[in-house]
Amino acid sequence: MLHNRIRGFTLFEMVIALSIIGMLATIAFPAYKTQQQKSRRAECQAALMQFASVMERDFSRNGNAYRNILTLTPPGFPNRCPIDGSSSTSYILGISSLSASTYQLTATPTGAQADDSCGTLTLTNLLQKGQGSGTIDQCWR
């Protein structure tokens, strides 16, 4: 005697599987977005440190006075992060305060990074780090 037994998923099993996938997605997507922001922030922090290094090198070459290297022709440093231009701009780099003996570099989040919890990152000639919101430990790891 042959029994034809139909094999497959029931509607109930399919609903359960989709519910589990939905719950995992609601947990995973925000964590993924946060991790992307941390990665872009770390890349920009490295760019700020490199920017400070270029400022110091220019300081020693320019008779011990800081100047805005972004306005030189050609510019002494890119005004965006990532600095290699490989992907869309996540931070705009600038100099918010400049004198012959001090400077403060800024990295203002833009695009996908605009809602970053740390806001604008800053770095001074004394390597003092700052952020628009959050804590130093959260924003400068």
Could you give a short description of this structure?
This protein is α+β, with helices and mostly antiparallel strands and 141 residues long. The chain is built from 2 helices and 5 strands. Strand 2 and strand 3 form a beta hairpin.
Give your account of this protein's structure.
- There is one protein chain.
- The chain has 141 residues and is of the alpha+beta class.
- The longest helix is centred in the first third of the chain and has 51 residues, at 11-61.
- It contains 2 helices and 5 strands; from the N terminus they run αβββββα.
- The termini are far apart.
- The model has no long low-confidence stretch (mean pLDDT 89).
- A hairpin with a 4-residue loop joins strand 4 and strand 5.
- The chain has one domain.
- 39% of the residues lie in helices and 17% in strands.
